[in-house]
Amino acid sequence: MNLHIMEIGSVAKVNNSNYICISKINFIMFSQKSNAIFQDVIRTYKVLNTVDQPFTNKYDKNDDLIAHLLYRKSWIDTVQWAYEDIIRDPNIDPVAALKLKRMIDASNQDRTDTVEYIDSYFLNKYKDVTVNSGAKINSESPAWAIDRLSILALKIYHMHLETVREDASDSHKAACQKKYEVLLDQRVDLSTAIDDLLNDVSNGDKYMKVYKQMKMYNDDELNPVLRGQK
């Protein structure tokens, strides 16, 4: 059977199962690309496995901007995962804990900024799409769904470690195996939802409306404690 690939506007259309729209293939590949990048980031980080290791983005923003942003986003999440583990040490020195809390605050701001850069990428990508009559807005932007996918990759990685941890009990491993399988299902569902959302946006069936997060506690004009110290 010969597979014929065609593109009709940006609408995916299948004819007798022999024709597949190029745009639909691209959207399927987007979640696959994202998940592959997230897994690569985690593997790369775990080589040294320290929060103070230097960061090098494997993707040039001029060659592949979205890959560059996804890699950066996942690295932020991976380092912050480690921060959150460290700060929960019951014996942590209070001074060190305060310093780490400031680092977590900065990481959260960096994470939010990167999510907004990703949404800006999609806004620019689909700026010329004609929105169809009756098109609906999605409650979550593509980038915030991708944010959840990045964090989900970390959950999957660490839950799998628990299923094979040598010093864990069999009951612990069995419980973690069940959770691990649920997380894998969640990744499939979330990946599909992201692909579908991008497909709908490209077709004009949904449109993007992005709200900047406007975090108030980092702003010395909006946070009353910081404002009082000026």
Describe this structure in words.
The protein is mainly α and 230 residues long. The protein has one domain (29-228). 63% of the residues lie in helices and 4% in strands. Strands 1-2 form a two-stranded parallel sheet. Helix 3 crosses helix 4 (142-164). It is globular and about 60 Å long. Mean pLDDT is 87; it is low at 1-28.
Question: Helix count?
Answer: 6
H-E string? EEHHHEHHEH
Oligomer: single chain
Which regions are unreliable across 5 or more consecutive residues at pLDDT < 50?
Answer: 1-28
Strand content: under 5%
Tell me, rounded to a whole number, the average pLDDT.
87
Query: In terms of structural class, how would the helical and strand content be classed?
Result: mainly alpha
Describe how the helices and strands are arranged.
Elements: E1 4-6, E2 19-21, H1 22-48, H2 65-87, H3 94-125, E3 136-137, H4 142-164, H5 170-203, E4 206-207, H6 224-228
Parallel strand pairs: 1-2, 3-4
Helix pairs in contact: 1-2, 1-4, 1-5, 2-3, 2-4, 3-4, 4-5
